[in-house]
Amino acid sequence: MNKRVQAWILIVAMTAFFSGASRAAEDVSLLKDMTSVIALLGLPCGQVVSVIKKGDNDHIASCQNGNRYRVYLNPEGRVVAQKQ
Q1: What's the structural domain count of the chain?
Q2: Exposure class string for 23-33: b at 16+ Cβ within 10 A, else e
Q3: 34 beta partners
Q4: Cβ distance 52 to 14 under 8 Å?
Q5: Contact 40, 50 (CB under 8 A)
Q6: Of 4, 8, 19, 47, which one's alpha carbon is 20 to 30 angstroms from that of 27?
Q7: Each residue of 21-56: pLDDT tens digit?
Q8: Range of 52's domain?
Q9: CA gap 74, 23 in Å, rounded
Q10: Share above pLDDT 70 across residues of the chain, in percent, rounded to a whole number
């Protein structure tokens, strides 16, 4: 194989590998952020175990205790969590 082709294959493989790792770190960070938001709003949750992104600043958070909340920004710019 040509050295340039080998170099491009290596670059593409490393990019795919490292982008997956950073996405996992973002997921953990998002779970922690959603857990904090729900707790600060005084809602029962325990710990957020999964998050589905619906749009910018609009998520569905599933809690360890079985509750689900839609966490979003309202038109006034305040964070709101609605039980689903």
Answers
A1: 1
A2: eeeeeeebbee
A3: none
A4: no
A5: no
A6: 8
A7: 444 445 888 899 999 999 999 999 989 999 999 988
A8: 3-83
A9: 27
A10: 69
